[in-house]
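[job 0412] stage=fold_complex status=start
inputs:
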Amino acid sequence: MMNKKAIGAVAVAAAAVLALSSCSGGNSGGSSGGDSAKGEISYWLWDANQLPAYQQCATDFTKANPDITVKITQTGWDDYWSKLTNGMASGTAPDVFTDHLSKYPDFLKTKQLVALDDAITKDNVDLSQYNEGLADLWVGQDGKRYGLPKDWDTVALFYNQKMAADAGITPEQMGSLTWNAQDGGTYEKAIAHLTVDKNGKRGDEAGFDKDNVAVYGLGLPGSDAENAGQTQWSYLSATTGWTTTDKNPWGTHFNYDDKKLQDTIDWWASLAAKGYMPKLETTVGANAADSFGAGKAAINSNGSWMIGQYTSYKGIDLGIAPTPQGPEGKRASMFNGLADSVWAGTKKKDAAIKWVEYLGSTACQDVVASKAVVFPAITTSSEKAADAFKAKNVDVSAFTQHVKDKTTFMLPITDNASKVAGIMKPAVDAVIAGKAPASSLTAANEQVNALFAK
Amino acid sequence: MTTLTKKPDPGLSARAPRKSRKRGKPSDGFRGIGDLKVALFFIAPAMVGLILFYLVPTIRGIYLSFTEYSILGDPEWIGARNYERIAKDPLFWNALGVTAEYVVINIVLQTALALGLAILMHRVAKSTLIRGALLMPYLMANVIAALLWFWMLDYQIGIINQIIEWTGLPRVAFFGSEQWAIPTQALINTWRHMGYTALLIFAGLQAIPNSVYEAASIDGSKAMNTFWRITLPLLRPVLVLVLVVTVIGSFQVFDTVAVTTAGGPVNATRVLQFYIYQRAFNEQDFGYGSALAVILFLILAIVAFIQMKFLRGNQSDLD
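[job 0412] stage=fold_complex status=done
writing structure:
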């Protein structure tokens, strides 16, 4: 009796060990399953604000394709990518997921995505319907297409109109700010004037107490270097002609050693030293947008996906101004676009692709537009979104203007994005904390470039 | 232990308690094999757990430390390259320093406070309610404790900074400043763990026979003298155990950092465990992460060995 049980127990243990070690071998990316166009497919996204819009799309999609249902799961940005990667390794990733430009190169390298070219040709998807440049961002180094664009975003200045009025700054002045790395231009003047200390003295007045500031001219959510400064300084550094990498997409050499970038960062860090922007150490654990909502900052630079949040603060008279003009009289904004990708391990490839094509069609993107949360990728849909924002009394021209004037530049698309972020974030943090000069970024840049050397 | 030695056959002492149940069996040899089966049966669950959750992952982790592995795809053997890179990685050395700072602050404070609390429990606070209350922080999940303090110590809205301001002093960026971030986290974990550590030491105090104290007082020993000459030396085995366990535990600090500063400001709280997590899970470099983990494992093994060896933790002076 005991003997058999003991053998049984050992056998169970051995089997479990085998199972464990074999599953850790992982799914190396082949689409093993069939390509059924029926059943339930899973879809992941991270932005809770957009969930209702896409739920509506899913319902409409099932109405048109009764064989297919879509199960949507929303996971916050912080956990989204590790959950997704773990899902890919263990074979439980969603059939379709919202994809990001800084992340998809790593998925390509490990063959986790399905190329959509054949389906797009077969189903006659019109790639020219999307805003210029968006569709081609999703073409890999192998020349194949791994996502259909769903939306885009640019950067602008959210500001407190009452504070601006009190400071005597008109909306016209806010709309025509200039900037340079030497004296900060009228942008710094406005920031300084909007800064008020505990005694009511403004940042540009004599006797201003920079250690006891009540309202900061510019809010600070951190160095943002993990996102290549997307919402915090890239709209300034790009006006100097600086680019993050040697080429984009698929750059292999970073330029954080360039003086133009280092001057920009030095200027930006100087705002904290002058008391116009919170010190980095005081912002740990704080949320910059909420501080703005609490009236502790007059200006926040941020992305268009934040419009909903900034307009939701009660008692704040919100204005949205375009980013300042740079030394050469031009504005600049990072242009980022999300897409939907199909996971290579899907068991329902045809249904998954069908859903991606639906997400990339006017039928779904008009629904997204009507909810006024983001700008859809399709040109006509993003115009509808602008109208929907207007209907809510939000003027979004500061965001759309960048696209109209072609003053956008693409988010850097490279391999090793998460490793680059791991190196650059502490490096730029140290600069804005005042612990190191911007010239220290040269050493970090060497580390980053070494990632591409091997 | 002592009851076992009273059994007639010392060689069978380990099996002795079951002897009566097996009295009916015909021969001793057969009984031995029967016991082995029974033993295996009882050992099996723990063995399965050990193999599944310790042995296999450990061996696999050591293997992965010699590979380049991104979790997707297959590990690629690269020899000792990860270790060579770690030797030249400033963030590794930074992590080592930061972790050491945390361990020293945490252990010194925690052990001193716990010893004090244990003596108070032993001598003064005889009420179970008070003894239980000391354990309360330990019952709180680490993450909750960390978030609670993160909130109370917040620069802008934290109640502690509010109080500091009322007293006329400038606010302190407990988590935001590079000098304070590690001491703050070490103090939070000291607060959380000292009750538990005190309980362990308290158990040790109770094991010291009263006769020793009586002899000391007859010889005219003062309270302080008794503490240094009698209590502390006799507590040594317990203190060593406590030290080994708490040092290993505090080298592995992770959750407090992960939910508060996430390695920052700059690199001030990028402790070893967090750096391992960052390299492996955020940056998908499981080979490098595994190599860091192996190094942490070796450090802990050496530290534990030194502590056991030089503090003679496995011997008691009571015998």
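[job 0412] summary: The radius of gyration of chain A is 24 Å.
[job 0412] exit 0
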